[in-house]
User: Which sequence fits this backbone?
């Protein structure tokens, strides 16, 4: 009897802990929507999402976040273009090509990169990379979309690489052996067997890496330049969504239109990362490698 | 269950202790980064004289300082601009009556990279640069090169003053880079050859070059005699008329000694 009641106790304790974190997160979400929605009393959803000008403290104010959305999307795309090939290829190298000794050294280093605080990466972008880009490309401003994307790519690579590496590593040896037995070279095996077999894992890794990039705040705040304009070139300064929230929230008068607008930006950002995660979930489910025969 | 209760009681008593420690003889100051050097210097001197008082100091901007007074999260809120009507309404609706103390004067000085040849700009040239109408240094008598306009975030007090006095309430071009602090502007102007920015007098250093406005140099003398056009008062706000340590600290800043420290911090003393 006593053992059973202990068992039940533990059961409900874990349930309570699980519920606690879920309830906490939903309360945060509720709060986000509660504080963000009131802005739409002042401005239509269309004007908010597609308005060209962000002048939140003017009188009358303009709350168009289109340049900010574009900034976020462009920065994420460019960082993806840099981080995806580098991350995936590093993972392929570590899982397939590197000798165990090399992999043993390189892998922890890559994973260590993931634990680099973003403020340090942002600072590096601001102080070192910005003047460097100015000189190399002969551009007026070093704090721009390219700089921020480069820094974000640095942050996304470890995530993408280590998740990809796990996916590639878990491809059954029998598949590779079958490929070798048919006379395929190592390269052919990697390109035609290993990568397709781990595609779902790779896609998930890429999307999770990019969702980290789109939500990242400190780096874009420090290195992106912060101009709320629609970028025309890769070297234009941009002001991604998280940077606006971080830079302005502290100074927006409590419960003012500006304050609500910043929370509404939070909602937009939340929707973005939410979609990314759903997509990752869907892909990992849809392209799951079941058994060895479905390739 | 009993153990749980003990832990809970311990946690609560710890929290109570911690919070009482924060409020006993402590002074919390928040707000404008422009006032930060002044507040830091005076707070250090004040704490040296009164070892029983602990002053905690943080930046965050003028709007934040005033918000902190209204919310009651600080004893003194620093603002590099006067309180806005909207903020007064908000404070009144919460039953708070902010009291301003002018603690120093400051000039906002346009700065450029030290390799820039420009030494003087008129108010209308400055305005047009920040409107995005003048895009090349050649147009204002400098050497060929794109002007990189650097501004502060729209909620900064320095930005507010710049907008009122230089822009005459017109909008700064969306192409302007925005930087979250005075120090950020100094950093950006130092590393960007074509940059122009503006900072409070306390942030000037050897790495950046100041530009005269309408032929007048932005310094203490010209601000006090009124000839430098972009100047302002720096304020500390309290929630209602201050008492106790808050009052004592404000009196200290407004004393002769405090004003000497204001000068050392790079701002302009009131007397």
Assistant:
């Amino acid at each position: 009897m006593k053992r059973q009641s202990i068992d039940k106790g533990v059961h409900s304790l874990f349930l309570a802990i699980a519920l606690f974190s879920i309830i906490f997160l939903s309360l945060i979400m509720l709060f986000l929507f509660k504080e963000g929605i009131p802005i739409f009393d002042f401005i239509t959803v269309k004007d908010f999402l597609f308005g060209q000008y962000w002048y939140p403290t003017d009188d009358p104010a303009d709350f168009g976040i289109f340049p900010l959305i574009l900034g976020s999307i462009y920065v994420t795309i460019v960082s993806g273009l840099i981080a995806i090939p580098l991350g995936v290829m590093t993972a392929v190298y570590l899982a397939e090509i590197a000798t165990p000794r090399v992999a043993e050294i390189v892998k922890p280093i890559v994973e260590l990169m993931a634990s680099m605080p973003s403020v340090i990466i942002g600072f590096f972008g601001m102080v070192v990379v910005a003047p460097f880009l100015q000189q190399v490309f002969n551009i007026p401003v070093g704090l721009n979309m390219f700089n921020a994307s480069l820094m974000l790519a640095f942050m996304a690579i470890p995530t993408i690489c280590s998740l990809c590496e796990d996916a590639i590593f878990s491809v059954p040896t029998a598949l590779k052996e079958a490929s070798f037995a048919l006379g395929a070279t190592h390269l052919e095996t990697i390109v035609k067997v290993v990568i397709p077999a781990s595609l779902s894992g790779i896609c998930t890794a890429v999307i999770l890496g990019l969702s980290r990039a789109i939500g990242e705040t400190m780096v874009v705040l420090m290195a992106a330049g912060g101009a709320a304009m629609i970028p025309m070139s890769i070297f234009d300064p941009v002001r991604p969504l998280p940077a606006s929230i971080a830079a302005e929230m502290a100074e927006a008068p409590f419960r003012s239109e500006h304050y609500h607008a910043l929370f509404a930006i939070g909602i937009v950002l939340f929707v973005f990362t939410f979609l990314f995660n759903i997509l990752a979930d869907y892909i990992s489910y849809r392209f799951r490698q079941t058994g060895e025969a479905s390739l | 269950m009993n153990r749980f209760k003990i832990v809970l009681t311990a946690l609560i008593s710890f929290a109570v202790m911690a919070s009482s420690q924060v409020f006993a003889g402590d002074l919390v100051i928040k707000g404008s980064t422009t006032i930060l050097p002044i507040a830091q210097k005076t707070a250090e001197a004040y704490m040296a004289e009164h070892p029983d008082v602990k002053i905690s100091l943080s930046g965050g901007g003028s709007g934040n300082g005033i918000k902190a007074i209204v919310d009651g999260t600080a004893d003194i809120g620093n603002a590099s601009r006067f309180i806005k009507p909207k903020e007064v309404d908000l404070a009144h609706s919460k039953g708070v009556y902010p009291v301003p103390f002018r603690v120093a004067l400051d000039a906002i000085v346009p700065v450029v990279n030290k390799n820039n040849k420009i030494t003087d700009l008129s108010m209308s040239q400055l305005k047009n640069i920040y409107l995005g109408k003048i895009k090349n240094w050649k147009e204002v008598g400098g050497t060929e090169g794109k002007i990189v306009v650097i501004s502060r975030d729209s909620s900064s007090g320095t930005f507010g003053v710049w907008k009122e006095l230089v822009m005459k309430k017109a909008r700064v071009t969306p192409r302007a880079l925005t930087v979250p602090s005075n120090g950020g502007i100094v950093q950006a102007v130092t590393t960007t050859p074509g940059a122009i920015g503006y900072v409070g007098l306390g942030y000037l250093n050897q790495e950046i070059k100041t530009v005269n406005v309408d032929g007048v140099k932005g310094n203490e003398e010209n601000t006090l005699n009124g000839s430098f056009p972009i100047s302002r008062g720096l304020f500390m706000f309290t929630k209602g008329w201050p008492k106790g340590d808050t009052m004592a600290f404000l009196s200290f800043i407004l004393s002769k000694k405090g004003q000497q420290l204001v000068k050392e911090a790079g701002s302009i003393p009131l007397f």
Chain A has a mean pLDDT of 88. The first strand of chain A starts at residue 54 and ends at 55. Chain A touches chain B through 34 residues (CB under 8 Å). Residues 42-294 of chain A form a domain with the MetI-like fold fold (CATH 1.10.3720.10).
